[in-house]
Write a structure and sequence with these properties.
alpha+beta, 2 domains, two-stranded antiparallel ribbon
Length: about 180
């Protein structure tokens, strides 16, 4: 099957992988987009393994609070450079990891976080393949309380704080965040 430039562009738009990687994955998968995506994912895992020893001293703290402010999540996502931490792709990966933790609920623990076939490690491997830097998620915290849970982030995303306030009236709780 002949692989067209439109096919390569479509796969690149879906995965964010490089043009040549997309073309070779489509060729290997005989034009099947699902198989080509799997090929790229496996290559991403291989590239993640190659980069695993490199230090990850930069990154961001991702934060999420439920609409009713009864629970919150903070996650630390590290990468090698501040440049990558500021990219839209890295920030989307942080949001995706927060969503995975939220979806997992009480199942999200240390073993779940480190599971090489779990959603967090697969998402990190995908981001490593796309951005070309080692990344890690060393920790997260989920908290559900009986009061008003909120968060604030310091130093451009480097430090995150999660607090719970008791005695917050419904009128105050409904006010928009400043």
């Amino acid at each position: 099957m002949a692989i067209t430039a439109a096919d390569v562009k479509k796969l690149r738009d879906q995965t964010g992988a490089g043009m040549m990687d997309c073309k070779s994955a489509l060729e290997e998968a005989n034009g099947n987009f699902d198989e080509a995506t799997t090929v790229l994912r496996k290559k991403g895992l291989a590239s993640a393994a190659k980069k695993a020893g490199r230090p990850t001293s930069e990154g961001l703290i991702g934060s999420m609070v439920s609409d009713d402010h009864s629970r919150g999540i903070l996650v630390q996502v590290n990468c090698e450079s501040d440049f990558v931490a500021r990219t839209d792709d890295f920030q989307q990966a942080v949001r995706d990891i927060l969503a995975a933790i939220d979806k997992a609920g009480d199942q999200a623990d240390e073993a779940w976080l480190k599971n090489p076939t779990g959603p967090v490690q697969l998402r990190i491997a995908e981001a490593i393949g796309k951005l070309g830097e080692n990344m890690a998620v060393p920790r997260f915290v989920r908290y559900a309380g009986t009061g008003y849970v909120t968060q604030y982030i310091h130093m451009g995303g480097k430090i995150g704080v999660q607090v719970e306030f008791g005695g917050v009236t419904p009128a105050v709780a409904k006010r928009p965040q400043a």
